[in-house]
Specification:
By secondary structure, the chain is α+β, with helices and mostly antiparallel strands. It contains six helices and 16 strands. The protein is globular, with a radius of gyration of 18 Å.
Length: 296
């Protein structure tokens, strides 16, 4: 990795960490989803970064991909509130998440994902197999009496690529990939008191450019153009379009684009048996002395 690339990864990680901490402080009883995610995204921009994806706010049995909608009315009331923040500098990404216990007695579940993350990070070295680290994540979560989410994984990070190279499972795997110097991974253990699996819900508020296709509607063409040029082919929120696309046409245009596979749709993911979920995440650069870019 050259010095300029490393500098950008470090800057993205630093901004992501500061925005995560800022957003964590916004999570209070009765505070709206909009206040939390809009405030955190504004902080990213004020610090000189760009969101690598919409800030995720996923509570209790929701595992990922939840955020404020266009006409959002929800507020944080109680439970395990997961805040997932991504930042990029010229495409180089810092991805981090934390869980805030709000009026709940499930701090032990939160500790399970945190401890699993710390143990995983402590094993990061060139030559170590992902399978060995994944088994450690699974064992740590189970030692607390919980289950890892087996179909949510950590992931490699590349330039303008949130899911590069290879997955980083949270359960034992036969994946024999050995870490290499310069690899960049977002490691994110999820722990649950449910059955250990998430399923797709019917709701989706996050989308991503997928490919160019002929689009009939003017609004659809505009969204596709923005997703490619303004949002750098990275995930974006329907909320980001509310002042740029007629609200009467927004849902119809997004449906047209997803039906034609021009956009990828990220459904909100929830635990199959309604179990609560905790999450902890950092971005790490693999080296003999690994660098955790999102820890400040």
């Amino acid at each position: 990795m050259d010095k300029e690339t490393l500098k950008k990864y470090r800057k993205a990680g630093e901004i992501a960490a500061k925005a995560r901490n800022f957003g964590e402080d916004l999570i209070k009883e009765g505070r709206s989803y909009c206040e939390i995610v809009d405030g955190t995204e504004k902080k990213i921009k004020d610090l000189g970064g760009k969101p690598a994806f919409p800030v995720n706010l996923s509570i209790n049995d929701i595992g990922a991909h939840d955020t404020a909608d266009v006409n959002e009315k929800r507020a944080a009331v109680e439970g395990l509130v997961k805040l997932d923040v991504g930042v990029h500098i010229d495409g180089y990404i810092g991805d981090t998440a934390t869980t805030v216990p709000l009026n709940t007695d499930k701090e032990k579940l939160l500790k399970a994902s945190k401890e699993a993350l710390e143990r995983a990070l402590g094993m990061i070295r060139p030559g170590v197999k992902i399978s060995k680290i994944s088994s450690e994540i699974e064992g740590t979560i189970k030692s607390f009496g919980y289950k890892p989410i087996r179909n949510l994984t950590g992931h490699g990070l590349g330039k303008y690529d949130l899911h590069a190279k290879t997955k980083f499972p949270n359960v034992g795997t036969d994946l024999d990939y050995k870490l290499e110097k310069g690899d960049v991974f977002a490691i994110e253990p999820f722990a649950t008191d449910g059955s250990g699996k998430v399923i797709e819900s019917s709701r989706a508020m996050i989308f991503k450019w997928q490919k160019e296709v002929p689009v009939r509607s003017r609004e659809g063409r505009k969204i596709l153009r923005m997703s490619k040029n303004d949002f750098d082919k990275l995930p974006f929120s329907k909320r980001w379009l509310k002042d740029r696309i007629s609200r009467l046409r927004l849902n119809m245009s997004l449906r047209e684009l997803t039906d034609r596979n021009a956009l990828y749709r990220y459904p909100v993911l929830k635990e199959v048996d309604g179990g609560d979920i905790s999450q902890a995440e950092h971005t790490v650069i693999v080296d003999e002395k690994p660098e955790i870019t999102t820890k400040i």
